[in-house]
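Working notes for the structural subgroup meeting. M.R. asked for a predicted model of this chain before we commit to crystallization trials. I am recording the input and output together here so anyone reviewing the notebook later can reproduce the run.

Input as submitted:
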Amino acid sequence: MSSTPVDERQALLSKSNTVVLVQEYGTASSSGASTPSVIKPNTSRADLIWILGGLWSAVFLGALDTTIVATLVSPIGSYFEKSHQASYLGTSYLLSVCCFTPLYGRLSDIMGRKGAMLLALSLFGIGTLLCGMANSMEFLIFARAVAGMGGGGVMTVSSISVTDIIPLKQRGLYQGLANILFGLGSGIGGPVGGWINDTLGWRAAFLIQIPILILSAIVIMFKVNIKLPETQQTTRQKLARIDYAGSFTLVISVGSLLLGLSLKTGEDLEWSSPIVIGLLCLSGAFAVAFVSVEAKWAPEPVMPLRILTMRTPFFVALSNFCVSANAFAMLYNVPLYFSAVRLNSASEAGLHLLPNAIAVSCGSVFAGWIMRKTGKLYWLTLSSAIGVLLSAFLISSWKESTHRFHLWFDIVFGGFGMSSLITSTLIALIASVDKKDYAVATGISYLFRTTGQVLGVSLSGALIQAVLVSSLRKGIQGPDAERIIQNIRHSTAVIPTLEPTLRDVAIQSYQRALTTVFTCQVVLAFLLVLCCTPIEENPLPSAHLPILIVYKF
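Returned structure, recorded in token form:
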């Protein structure tokens, strides 16, 4: 083995098809620095394409599923006559993602990148299959939670794996390329999901994902081989390092908060209800317990406080939370606006997400190109946050007289800014920590993103129901008023069938409720701009991240 020192600027794949092992492996699972080595396994550029293709096909599936479900929330709620519970389809999935995402950073070290990705795809596939077979809203919500157990891992392990093999300065560009597939999945998920619902029924929108999922798993099984440095620890010792207590206390805290707010707004319980008070107190208690576990007892915490006490990681985490909450609230509520206020079909409502998906792809690629060309990201990040703010402001001003151009393209600024910001802040985070913390830092980023996503969907849904009920009760009077109100809440499909006066009240009530949510998103986007301001400008080295890559074909 050559003892020649490895130049950190050396390309990942040289002309001699050599893959370099850098001595400082970047996770806490390593047993120490390893000796620099050079492996020559007859690789080619096509090999790298296969690896990225296998990983990114899974990302495509995750994006496709997200927008399919966002588009079908209203039709599914109407099908089961439980539209007031429809937001739980997003909440259950994202809460499960929030719970399991932190574990995948550790599992990818223990099981290997391939093993962790296949586990994630298996859970995601089982959950998606169960969704297509669901015979009740409650079972469908449960199935979405099962899918979320894998969905979080798909995104996290894919990101960690790409970070392993791509030079940091080029990482943003490759993130942009990944987001092209993410944007493609997001773009076709809405209109295709709506079209499938209108022609074959909503169940087919879930079942059609299974063949693609199987193909993705096959590619990953045979083409993705990333070998981690050997350690002296047994599997039992590795499993003992997982922060079970931290993950448990986090999900109980977030879950109790969401359930308490949902019962208050969706089931018309009072704030003084013992159930609501108990759930909110339980949430606070477990939040304190989570912080205590992470600070004092967790052997390898899912949210290391030592990293969050650093300036850039802290504000990157907050900005990721804000932009994710804003983006997912928009993702679920814009189709609802076109279904309940504009009375569009599911396919038409989903089609309005297409410009956003295209913008997501372009924004991420643009951010990657800028960072690769300039090696800087501060002003890129700040301007991206301002784009999100502009989009939120424009959407909050939608009304009956709004021109169709705005209804189609106001969302573009938010999609472009969100994807650009997610890309640049991930690079800012990685560039601000030591190599040994790369995987953990990536996990923190996804933890705050998923927490933002689940709170964005659930809290916006709760707020919509609260304002909607209040507005409907003011506009609809008489002996049958409560029955009509419940029908409108439970199924947006009944709105076009109402007599003109009641239909106008229902449309205006949904308009008022959604405008309230969109206005709150303006405030959230403003906080996003403030959170991006303190992020530091760190140099972006060209060296590839420390990992041993072994290709087996």
